[in-house]
Amino acid sequence: MNGKISAFGEIMLRLSAGDIGIAAANSFDACYGGTECNVLACLSQFGYATQYLTALPDTELGNAAVNHIKSFGIDTDSIVRRGDVMGIYFVENGNGSRGSNVIYMRRFSEFTRLTQNDFDYDRIFDGVTLFHISGISFALSESSKQLAFRLVDEAKRRGVKVSFDFNYRAKLWDTTTAAQYLKQAASKADIVLASTLDLSVFLNTTEAEYYDKFSSEYLILRDRKILSADKHSVKVTVCHNNGQSVDRYSSPVVEFAVTEKIGGGDAFDGAMLHGLLSGKDVKSATTFAIAAFALKHKIAGDTFAGTENDVNAYKATFGDLLK
Fold it and tell me: What's this model's pTM, rounded to 2 decimal places?
């Protein structure tokens, strides 16, 4: 695979209460997770050189997080290490009568204190061909928002393609505030990963009108429906602007089983980016990404570390639906 893929975002300690609920839990299962890191981990398993831009405390907990990141083959040399505060989030799975719940403790993490002076832009973009970011990094603090925009601009100035996932989190900011900045980010991206609802709420547009206002090469819409506590469905539409016209592929609705509710979107992003970067046609890239998305919902923890063969084997279980 040619070129390096870089991403910017926060990784946190995840403490899971399981089905019992946070209030009733006496112990928690621990792992690490963060959407951009999860995307890189997925791409790393598909054979790409990857680099993570983040900040972690200079403590044993920070060391453990770095070791977790390294275990997926991700380059950690540009991670800023200082201070002693790491973001934490608590998770409860929910059940048929109670939805899942997440509680964040990240307001004063080292990541939220990053500034535009913390990276050498020439060095971190050396050899990079794709830069990935999500809306979360624009929401966490004023300085992380400014740095996120600076990184996007530095990537574009160097001819590096930018992929952007809205990844809206209602517990981080309201839709009105978010719309101001997510629209700016989307307008700069070459690959936009979103939902139909994102277009309506944050861009005040529709799929049919999108290319009247925005010029990204790819618009990828992933629309999920919750059918029950343990079954969801997804439909994906990909629009490709080739400079002269816009080609469109829309997948069938795919139903899949759910035992893990976190990390599916990150697996989808990683698999979709792999499909596009490796030269798959749009239909093949989309069905591959749907299979990775569905498979991740059966794997505990935040991160999907399966291989391309794993995804293709699972894709085959859907038969003609994903051919």
Answer: 0.95
